[in-house]
Amino acid sequence: MIDQIKGLHHITSMAGKASTNNAFFTDTLGLRRVKKTVNFDAPDVYHLYYGDEVGSPGSVMTYFPFPHIARGRQGTGEVGTTLFSVPDGSLGYWTDRLTKAGVEGLKADSAFGEKQLHFAGPDGDGFALVEIKDDPRKSFTGNGISEDHAIRGFHSAALRLRDEGATAELLKFMGYQPVDHKDGVTRLAIPGGNGADLIDLETMPNISSAKLGAGSVHHIAFSVENREKQLEVRKALMDTGYQVTPVIDRDYFWAIYFRTPGGILFEIATNEPGFDRDEDTAHLGEALKLPMQHAHLRAELEKHLEPLA
Asked: Which SUPFAM superfamilies does the UniProt record give (predicted)?
């Protein structure tokens, strides 16, 4: 069994209009844009990162906004819901805030004894806020939401699957342990993780497969401390039969990828070097940062990319 993984690192999704995406995560949800860069494979498309003040592993939601992309189709083989931790007693505040902002799909319920508020992102993304008592992680309050209400980071992610069996076994191999099962959902947790410790498996055998598009999660990334730990995980996965990519330098972390039995793309990402490698912490996410191989395109990209506040 792998013991190097410490919870979630980031979740990366697809979006439509960049400015709408940026406003939703910064103005509506109060997260900090910690990096404004471009897609490594399509440099004419932004890669936007939102999180806590420094972009701590377990807090970062990232997006590829393609202006003319079709909306995704929900189904199995994807991350269905991304859930964020908020302080105990704050869902009333969030209900009012999201209602005033015109956010769609608001629905209050509970799961595993925790109060939740579900809502949709601008492209139909599935989100929820979960009240957690005494989450020690520090929130970002620079966008006008007080410490008493602000998002702490990820709480969990819910994976939609036709059959949970093989994916559950994979997650157990990755260090997750089953902690509960209710209403057809299996909850697994990383003991002593980084706060973004939970994965829920939703079995939906009669639902068609998801289709990637705006509002869809592209991949979900798990956190390891450094490159040494990452290589240990890569070897263990490959020894088990998984086809894992070589290590890829993503500027702010190193990444490896592999496809799960349920069809979801998993990434293992390092906590190093972090988002302050090329920007002072006080100014994270302000300037357009380009991967070295795309630096020569700066003038063209600055004309092409939609301006962001």
From this structure: Glyoxalase/Bleomycin resistance protein/Dihydroxybiphenyl dioxygenase
Written as one letter, the residue type at 133 is K
Phi, psi torsion values for 41, nearest 5 degrees: -95, -15
Domain that holds residue 279: 8-304
Contact 183, 104 (CB under 8 A): no
Torsion over CA of 151, 168, 249 and 34, rounded to 10 degrees? -10
Cα–Cα distance measured from residue 106 to residue 149, given in angstroms and rounded to the nearest whole number: 17
Share of the chain above pLDDT 70, in %: 100
CATH code of the domain covering residue 137 = 3.10.180.10
Q: What is the pLDDT of residues 15-25, one digit of tens each?
A: 999 999 999 99
What values do phi and psi take at 221, rounded to 5?
Answer: -115, 140
Task: Measure the CA–CA gap between 254 and 81, rounded to whole angstroms.
Answer: 25
- Does 309 fall in a domain? no
Task: Report the first-to-last Cα separation within the chain, whole angstroms.
Answer: 45
Assigned domain for 182 exists: yes
Q: Alpha-carbon distance 136 to 211, whole Å?
A: 37
Q: Identify the H or E element spanning 249.
A: strand 248-249
Q: Tell me what pLDDT residue 309 has.
A: 85
**163-195 pLDDT tens trace:** 999 999 999 999 999 999 999 999 999 999 999
- The domain tally of the chain equals 1
Cα angle, residue 113 at apex, residues 205 and 98 outer, rounded to 5°: 85
Pairwise CA distance, residues 259 & 243, whole Å: 8
* pLDDT tens profile 139-170: 999 998 999 999 999 999 999 999 999 999 99
Residue 8: what pLDDT?
98
* CA–CA separation, 300 and 43 (whole Å): 10
Beta-ladder partners of 202: 160, 185
